[in-house]
């Protein structure tokens, strides 16, 4: 299980580097955490997200300041005292292999302060009844947005809209499309 855990931490570090190089929108820690838990290792999504945020910050800082591997590992040790030794070794290995690939572009130096859109899913539903009303027949649209926050963590944001709210939402998208046509 130690080797499986090391492989999954390595995968997370590689995804962080890809994110910093703007090749992928973010790191899906929920999916990675499920894979870790399936391998029999107890780790929650919150802890894995914290590790991903710290490693992402350290990788981008190390690239910007041209830190050596040892300087990066020392900084990592100061930031995360509870990180297992084998995880630190994996991070060191990934940084040695791929750290230099992190782009030095202005975009990589100044990570965005807003999230990035990844995907949208929607469905139309009808609430038939509730404990207070036997016959609702209330239509609604459920929307799930998948976004990558500025640190690269991929999350789903879900919300429901009434039909009038959806029509307003749709009208605003049509207005944006019309403006984009003029660009």
From TrEMBL:
Q: Which terms does the record give in the GO molecular function aspect? A: NF-kappaB binding
UniProt superkingdom: Eukaryota
Pfam families recorded for this chain?
COMM_domain
Which InterPro entries does the UniProt record give? COMM, COMMD4/6/7/8
Give the COMM domain ranges: 116-183
What PANTHER family is this protein classified in?
COMM DOMAIN-CONTAINING PROTEIN 4-8 FAMILY MEMBER, COMM DOMAIN-CONTAINING PROTEIN 6
User: What is the similarity comment for this entry?
Assistant: Belongs to the COMM domain-containing protein 6 family.
Q: What does this protein do?
A: Scaffold protein in the commander complex that is essential for endosomal recycling of transmembrane cargos; the commander complex is composed of the CCC subcomplex and the retriever subcomplex. May modulate activity of cullin-RING E3 ubiquitin ligase (CRL) complexes. Down-regulates activation of NF-kappa-B. Inhibits TNF-induced NFKB1 activation.
State the protein's name.
Answer: COMM domain-containing protein 6
